[in-house]
Automatic annotation (TrEMBL):
Source organism per UniProt: Candidatus Endobugula sertula (Bugula neritina bacterial symbiont)
GO-annotated biological processes: peptide transport; transmembrane transport
Lineage, top ranks: Bacteria, Pseudomonadati, Pseudomonadota, Gammaproteobacteria, Cellvibrionales
Gene Ontology MF: a single term: ATP binding
InterPro entries, A to Z: AAA+_ATPase, ABC_transp_ATP-bind, ABC_transporter-like_ATP-bd, ABC_transporter-like_CS, Oligopep_ABC_C, P-loop_NTPase
Name the record gives this protein: Microcin ABC transporter ATP-binding protein
Keyword ATP-binding among UniProt keywords: yes
Keywords: ATP-binding, Nucleotide-binding, Transport
Amino acid sequence: MSTNLLAIQNLNLSIHGNAILKDVNLDVASGEILAITGESGSGKSLTAFSVMQLLPRGTVTTGSITLDGTELLNASDSEMCKLRGNDIGMVFQDPMTALNPLKTIGDQVMETILLHTDTTREEAKKRAEEALTRVGLPPEKYKLARFPHELSGGQRQRVVIAMAIALRPRLLIADEPTTALDVTTQAQILELLKDLVQDFGMGLLMITHDLAVVSDMADRIVVMRHGEVVETGGTQALFRKMQHPYTRALFEASAHAVDLPEAPKVDDALLIVKEAVRDYPKPRTSLFGPRTYTRAVNGISFTLNKGERIGLVGESGCGKSTLTRAILGLEPLQGGTIQAFGQSVGPDMAPALRAGLQVVFQDPYGSFNPRHKVARIITEPFHLLPDPPQGIERQNRISEALIAVGMHPSDADKYIHAFSGGQRQRIAIARALIIRPELIIFDEAVSALDVSIRAQILDLIATLTQSHNLSYLFISHDLSVVRTITDRVLVMKDGEIVEDGETEQVFNDPRHPYTASLIQAAPTLPDVKALTDVSA
């Protein structure tokens, strides 16, 4: 019998006759962290779902998946229901969709315990409190009666982990558990997962597209491409001697630095934010009690000049998104002013002013109407123009915008579902470019992309700064991206700018302790040359 906790042998999977996984072999021992990495579509998540037997209709699997010698591919639904949660726990990528918004966090952690054990509700509550305390959410500070929407992204992910470990499963599967998290929260979640493996002796199968995330966490790494395992090995050994070209390509894309052209030194302000203040009312605690407010943006001031590329970084809840909405004129200020191109910005700003200020969102699919073709999607900003182009001129503008972002003019006649994530983000950039704005706001524009696609989009942005004389505000929680794509960086904390300086100066010699903590928490790739020298 195998000494491995989980053993996958010659796993083949097809959906409606389309081969997805091909002869996948991997294993996880108790107390071991195995990372599966690769781009979207490589088969990482389907491999994990095969272990859980959470597969779509029309799926046919062959091969073997055993958990402590128990075959899972032949297990019945009732047998798998006993194993899920009890012996196998799973942490999903998006905690907000993994949690029930109508149930308290206490009830959701207790549900796992009540389903799989004969314990009383009082005992289940006690065990739920222990699980939440273990993941850093003690009940004296985070009451079990809270709902998911009352927690931050990192706190919600901790609740999902508490649900997964409530019964101390032998195997924990984490599917991109830190993709949408800030660097400090990401570091905390990764450290938590490492501690759980050490404390409980469970095996951890971690799925990620980011090699930097697992470089100092995983014991071994499996690299997948097009449904196949192309390389596997101990973490340091794999980084030291990458055998497969695809592994090397992933590593190079993770460490990719763009060739950003020199910014022109022009004292021509495009955007002036002066003492901006934004308050949100809190719920009343009593019928006739005074209204209290939360200050999301507290007296922020900065100027973005023509040709300048500024980065805005900070953790969730620091006020980045609130400030962005105010700059776009989507929310009013309670104090201070925002001016773009010499005119006041606000909810009632003129369409012509909006035309010069465009935005590229984090989720391009969510910001597109799936019923419209690309031609209609990217020409949406035309309604801001007093005399929008018609006929052949309109077609030329569409073709010009698509070519500028590396797409083909014929793509204008396709629907958005026909494109990959990277292509959708290119289309989102084309939509922002089509009316030739002077300033673009990139709001987490590459955070959901694979490392190789991310590298392509960053190269595209760098190219567009020269060809279209772009100025932009680049908002991101990924410090490695901000470092390569900006000239200047603003660091936000608790609604205030705590540091403002040239990018390299801020990264090499941060003046504020908060900036230093952000840089320290950011995952970094190992120095391959140093590893090679040590082995030699």
